[in-house]
Amino acid sequence: MNRWKLLAIASLAISLSACSMLSQNKDKETKVDSTVSAEQLLKQGRDATKARDYEAAIKSFESLEARYPLGKFAEQAMLESAYAYYKYDEADTALDTIDRFMRMYPRSARIDYALYLRGLVNFNRGGSIVDRIFPRSFSDLDSVRKKEAFHDFQRLLTRHPDSKYAPDAAKRLGYLRNTLGGTEANIGKYYMKRGAYLAAFNRAEYTIKHHQGTPAVIDALQIKVCAARALKREKIASDAMRVLQLNFPNKTEFSCNFN
């Protein structure tokens, strides 16, 4: 039996095991006392979150929302349930809850945290069960998730530059900018390997235009030179080489063999 068949069987077994555990957890639903006040439910949820019992925290927060939807604690409970869902590896539900929060409380004093949390969910969002067993580098993950996280952090910095979450968001934004640029450059290299020189050239152009200030621009300029030469566009290749020499004089020696 080859490696991929073994991997598929292992993944299926783990998936079935996870489903079984979830089913057992549902059978053991935590009862929430109907006489508990909104403030007590909020405290219970927070205590459960601190204890990393996110399932119990979610139950308390959602019970609070259901019983006291117009109370002063409902807004806070919704946001804290989103965080609990995030830590409970329920990314889609966490995002849905955050979006609902922003629709219902657009003027909330905690809207900056909602945007930051949305960025964190997308930034740390896991892939398939195979990704968890054999984790890939962040730059190999779905670029849609990275772009979502990028836009979330960008919105936070644009709308709430003085937020206490802004410094961390800025660091993550810089990291995302670099990795997104690297992803685009890697796609260009892949096209060069396949002999798809026009596609490689266009990808390099896109990277240069949209990812200025990142290391990926160096790779993109080199790809542009090589792709232009392969397409017999010597003037374009010379112009790209001149830009490379002016801006990155130590990166002018490279091979056009991307295999």
Terminal CA distance reads 30 Å
- Describe the sheet with the most strands: none
Q: Average pLDDT, to the nearest integer?
A: 85
Strand fraction equals under 5%
State the helical fraction.
over 70%
Please tally the β strands and state the result: 0
Number of helices: 12
Could you explain the architecture of this structure?
Helices cover 73% and strands 0% of the residues. The chain has 259 residues and is mostly helical. The longest helix is centred in the C-terminal third of the chain and has 29 residues, at 166-194. The protein is elongated, with a radius of gyration of 24 Å. The two termini are 30 Å apart. Mean pLDDT is 85; it is low at 1-10, 16-30 and 128-141.
List strands and helices in order, with pairings:
Blueprint: H1 3-27, H2 38-50, H3 54-67, H4 74-87, H5 91-104, H6 111-124, H7 129-133, H8 143-159, H9 166-194, H10 197-210, H11 216-230, H12 234-247
In brief:
The protein is mostly helical and 259 residues long.
Which key phrases capture this entry?
elongated; 259 residues; 73% helix; mainly alpha
